[in-house]
Amino acid sequence: MQKINLAQKFGTFTDTWVPKVVGQLNGQLVKLAKFEGEYVWHAHENEDELFLVVEGHIDIHFRDETVPLDEGEFCIVPRGVEHKPVAEKLASVLLFEPATTCNTGVVDHKYTIETDGLEHI
């Protein structure tokens, strides 16, 4: 059994838009990331994705609406739905998604990190 302290883990990195793996269960990964600025429009064809704001505020943009998220709030983006996270100021976010999920979906972008290239902290 292992206890994970989110604040301690977030304190180990400063880069933005680079998810770090802190746990896994049942084929799912628990990832931490810092968001700042705008991400890229993308969708995940086969995976749902959960965004939980630990610190700060983010907006999840969809083509027809924007969902604002404050600390302690989360949003599940269903598979196939195009979205773009935006954080006007630095925010700390927990992501929960299948281990096969590429962070930019099918979009090839400078933020793309292949699943085998994710850092475990």
Describe this structure in words.
This protein has 121 residues and is mainly beta. It has one domain: Jelly Rolls (Sandwich), CATH 2.60.120.10. 4% of the residues lie in helices and 47% in strands. The chain has one helix spanning 6-10, and strands at residues 20-25, 28-38, 49-55, 57-62, 66-70, 74-77, 83-98, 119-120. A hairpin with a 3-residue loop joins strand 4 (57-62) and strand 5 (66-70). The longest helix is centred in the N-terminal third of the chain and has 5 residues, at 6-10.
CATH classification, class level: Mainly Beta
Number of strands: 8
| CATH homologous superfamily classification | Jelly Rolls
Tally the helices: what do you get?
1
- N-to-C order of helices and strands: HEEEEEEEE
Distance between termini?
A: 16 Å
Q: Outline the low-pLDDT stretches.
A: none
Question: Which term fits the overall shape?
Answer: globular
Average pLDDT value?
93
CATH architecture: Sandwich
Largest β-sheet summary: 8 strands, mixed
Class based on secondary structure composition and strand pairing: mainly beta
